[in-house]
Amino acid sequence: MSTPKFRLEATWVDHGEEPAKMKLALTNLSGADLKNFRLSYTGLMRVKADVKEENATFVKRFANFHQFDPLDGVVVADGETWEFTVQNLTSNAQHRMDGPKSGYLTLEDGTHVDVDTGDLQIEGRPSEFAGNLVPEGKLTDPIAVVPWPNHVAVGDFDTPPVVLCAAEGTSADEKRAINTVAALAKRLKHELPDRLRLTNVPGGRKLTLVNNAALASEAYELSFAKDEVVLTYGDKAGLNYGLITLSHMMDGAKAEPTKFKFPTSGEIKDAPRYEWRGSHLDVSRQFYPTDAVERFIDILAWNKLNKFHWHLSDDEGWRVEIKGYPNLTKDGAVMGEGHAMPAQLGAGHESTGGFYTQDEIKELIVHGQALNVEIMPELDIPGHCNAVLAAYPELRDPEEPEDNYRSIQGYPNNAINPGIPATYKFIETVMEEISELFPSKYIHVGGDEVDENSWLQSPAAQKVMNEERLNGTMQLQAHFLGKVQKTIRKKGKIVGGWDEVSHGGGIDKEGGTLLFAWQKPEVGLELAEQGYDVVMTPGQAYYLDMAQSPAWQESGAFWAGYASPEKTYTYEAAGEFPDHLKGRLKGVQACIWSEHLISRQVFNHQVFPRLNAIAEAGWTEKDNKDWPRFAAQCKLLPRL
């Protein structure tokens, strides 16, 4: 990659006496004068409609995409800088990545060239670092296992064996399970030697596998001796988890032999706390290629997380091939100059995006099944549909005024219309293909963040509201989602959705409707009281795009506050649930929203070790959790 010829730097100016403003400085390093140009940039700190600009002319904004022109006659000589300021923004900056995430210039001849962007700095005061958010920690036992087992009574620790070798008499299916986990460990931590082996080797220790149908499916037990390890398991999942636990222990003892050992006596008895132990991944705001998604599934399995909530559509992109609607991936999966969707969230002028073919998805499903990871697809409707509408504008009422409402992310008229017959044909076709493609019993329909003014000036929507005696946007959404639920049930599937699915009267609670409580912890209890099954994923603790500290040099969002690794670890989803409602609490889930995750480095900083902390919250009983012990172990775990 060549060195950029232009650099855009931003400074946050907030003296408290007047509304804060952002100062932008474009430096020309091209070797020639710059004139008659236009600057485009993407940034989550958006200008409002009444933006005030100095030394520039505001051209337009579309969600996070901004365009400004210099004043007439401005020439930026080589090595010189053009500065301008903008005031009246949607929020005040809190962190270094709140400024422009990407930019490009449109030159006098119509060509486009990328602009490098720097961190947002603060005028007039130093920007602080958060420091080390994970302490050295303290072990309760000198073994490395995350999530921590629910019964540990081991002793007589020693250096680990060279490898654990399958005992004579191991069945073919058991050997396949050993091979699966051995390959998983090698993919995730190739720098460490083999943990498991199918044949004997001098220096190896015998690994005996015993099936006990009396154990629960995901349960396993380990018994340690100097010359043998016995793994007893309930079913395929329990065998998998027991082998992963042994692999963790081998890794720790070999990677840090002064800190971790391997037991030669004692036992571990283990089973998960919750049935739903998940992680969501938003692949719309940033597209993750198939190899990255495959590794992400590996990481979930390594942490004994058993649900992958795949967020496949949003305003910024539609990511799954639908054969009946090919424009979804032709026009709805790509952004940039010359496309229906302009650049967003770190993208430049060149075409950016991508999608997963149905064949690629089938391969990832098989990969997950081998590791006991179920993939639940999410197609976010009726809101968050800018990409859908870019591909199929006929799903919008042509008589509804343009820019009648804007979503919280700034997208105009971004909800498909419940008053148009074409909408239901679209839903029927998409859900048919998704139902056939994904074996998961759940299809997540989104249902979140529909603006309260959506459809209120749509004649087609108003007709439905009058006929059905519906009052307002939320009741119309509930009516629409009820029809979607019937379509999904015909496919033998169960509806999942964000907590707003309960608004406006909600949808049918029978048959296992599963809602994900994200807005605040109290919502989960409210949903359970209404009769919904619930997965807890509150933004205040389990949204991994949230910054980990208020320090300026941290990255991430801040609308739900700050979630340090310790806060995420110690949060208790069941804390407010009375005993008679605890059966409604199906589990916990991390959410990885990708607006801020513009590089693999930022992803890893934001996600780990908080994802590992949520894995332990989903598996380990409250009384067995221990933050210092987790802190001492989590640095061993793999990252994306």
Can you walk me through this structure?
This protein is α/β, with parallel strands linked by helices. The chain has 15 helices and 30 strands. The strands form six sheets. It has a nine-stranded mixed β-sheet, with no helix packed on it. Strands 19-20-25-26-27-28-29-30 form an eight-stranded parallel beta barrel, surrounded by four helices. It has a seven-stranded mixed β-sheet with strand order 12-18-16-17-15-13-14, with helices on one face. β10 (102-106) and β11 (112-122) form a beta hairpin. α1 crosses α3 (290-302). The longest helix is centred in the middle third of the chain and has 20 residues, at 236-255. It is globular and about 85 Å long. It catalyses: Hydrolysis of terminal non-reducing N-acetyl-D-hexosamine residues in N-acetyl-beta-D-hexosaminides.
Annotate the secondary structure layout.
Elements: E1 6-13, E2 21-28, E3 34-35, E4 38-42, E5 47-54, E6 57-62, E7 65-69, E8 75-76, E9 81-89, E10 102-106, E11 112-122, E12 151-158, E13 164-166, H1 172-188, E14 196-197, E15 205-211, E16 220-224, E17 228-233, H2 236-255, E18 262-270, E19 276-282, H3 290-302, E20 307-311, E21 313-314, E22 317-318, H4 327-330, E23 334-335, E24 352-353, H5 358-370, E25 374-381, H6 386-391, H7 421-437, E26 442-446, H8 459-468, H9 472-490, E27 494-498, E28 514-517, H10 521-530, E29 533-536, H11 539-542, H12 565-570, E30 585-592, H13 600-607, H14 610-619, H15 627-633
Parallel strand pairs: 1-11, 13-14, 13-15, 15-17, 19-20, 19-30, 20-25, 25-26, 26-27, 27-28, 28-29, 29-30
Antiparallel strand pairs: 1-2, 2-9, 3-8, 4-7, 4-10, 5-9, 6-7, 10-11, 12-18, 16-17, 16-18, 21-22, 23-24
Helix pairs in contact: 1-2, 1-3, 3-5
